[in-house]
Amino acid sequence: MAYNQLKQQLIEYSKEIGIDKIGFTSASPFSELKSRLKEQQDLGYASGFEKGTIEERTEPQKLMQGAESIIAIALAYPTKIPNAPRSKKGERRGMFCRASWGTDYHIVLQEKLQKLADFLEERIANFQYSSMVDTGELSDRAVAERAGIGFSGKNTLLISPELGSYIYLGEMITNIPFTPDQPLSEGCGTCTKCLDACPTGALVEPGRLNAQQCLAFLTQTKGYMPEEHRDKLGNFIYGFETCQVVCPYNYRVDFHHHPEFEPDPDLVKPKLVDLLFISNRDFKKKFGKMAGSWRGKKPLQRNAILALAHYQEKDAIEKLIQLMNEDPRPVIRGTAAWAIGKIGTIEGYQAIEKAMEEENDQEVLIEMKKGLNFRDEKKRGISK
Ligand code: SF4
């Protein structure tokens, strides 16, 4: 009874501190998830960014001795940029996905969870807890689903019927035996919009994602972008969210509940050329607070080059040639060479031929050849 009262008080408090949804579940193992994770691993569908063993990811007691319950929280984030700058010829802009707008959500949600912990610590002797947001062992989605925050969509994301899927999730394991909430009975029904719209077929079946084919994941890798996916990114330089954009649960959803998540238009739609030569120091100063900067500047620069190729931005050729000739990182030189060929100017092709005489890296040379192939295909009347 006392714990039920405490639960109510905590729910009230969570509203005061700006948590959009809160739910409670037991700390019992996520048995169904265990077999799914094993399958994902066996099929080679995992991203590699996951933390911990499958046991740790599915058995809260392995993470905290005496675990009794898990408190799940959700915060909604905006989907529209007020006064968004236009991407125009000569000044093309890239795009960070919405989950990277504003201050890094890991920080914001950890602060909210800490406030909840402080609230409980003041009221319960020997209170113990362990909080995590995204990068912890537990699956935020599985916890939130079991805690009744939303349901798991066919796009593998947690969908709240009221808030949609543009929500951040976090959780706290506690040693308090709170009464669990009930999972929702709602679901996707016969809708398959996300599966139909995914440009790479990464949603291999309803509720199953091959992370290795997911563009959101691929924008965060540091090697070469697989060639077959380079054209599909459009101007996205971090993340990708078609499976959310098409989801009916997200129609007209645009929550501006948290000033921390408000996008700075110039940051979330940065000028692509400006990104190409940014120093580490300026990158940290400008983008360091965004979730999308967690892998450093290299993947974003690689993606910025691909976005310039997507726009066929001839005005950027000179800068791309400079990158191809001078950048110490092979992936950047090679991607620049590919983009130069894709944009397809005589000056660009000549620059690739010249650069090939000096280049020693075999992979960069392959990309240079691919760049020149665009010219040959053009000559033969084949255009990709
Ligand atoms: Fe479910 Fe349709 Fe949304 Fe996909 S697009 S998650 S199938 S409701």
UniProtKB/TrEMBL annotation:
This is Epoxyqueuosine reductase. Pathway: tRNA modification; tRNA-queuosine biosynthesis. [4Fe-4S] cluster 1 binds at C188, C191, C194, C247. Catalyzes the conversion of epoxyqueuosine (oQ) to queuosine (Q), which is a hypermodified base found in the wobble positions of tRNA(Asp), tRNA(Asn), tRNA(His) and tRNA(Tyr). Its cofactor is cob(II)alamin; [4Fe-4S] cluster. It catalyses: epoxyqueuosine(34) in tRNA + AH2 = queuosine(34) in tRNA + A + H2O. Binds 2 [4Fe-4S] clusters per monomer. InterPro entries: 4Fe4S_Fe-S-bd, 4Fe4S_Fe_S_CS, ARM-like, ARM-type_fold, PBS_lyase_HEAT, QueG, QueG_DUF1730. It comes from Gracilibacillus dipsosauri. NCBIfam families: tRNA epoxyqueuosine(34) reductase QueG. It is an enzyme of class 1 (oxidoreductase). It is found in: Cytoplasm. Its EC number is 1.17.99.6. Monomer. GO terms for molecular function: 4 iron, 4 sulfur cluster binding; cobalamin binding; epoxyqueuosine reductase activity; metal ion binding. TRNA binds at Q220, K222, N280, R281, R295, K297, K298. Residues 176-208 form the 4Fe-4S ferredoxin-type domain. [4Fe-4S] cluster 2 binds at C198, C214, C243. One of its GO terms (cellular component) is cytoplasm. Keywords: 4Fe-4S, Cobalamin, Cobalt, Cytoplasm, Iron, Iron-sulfur, Metal-binding, Oxidoreductase, Queuosine biosynthesis, tRNA processing. GO terms for biological process: tRNA queuosine(34) biosynthetic process.
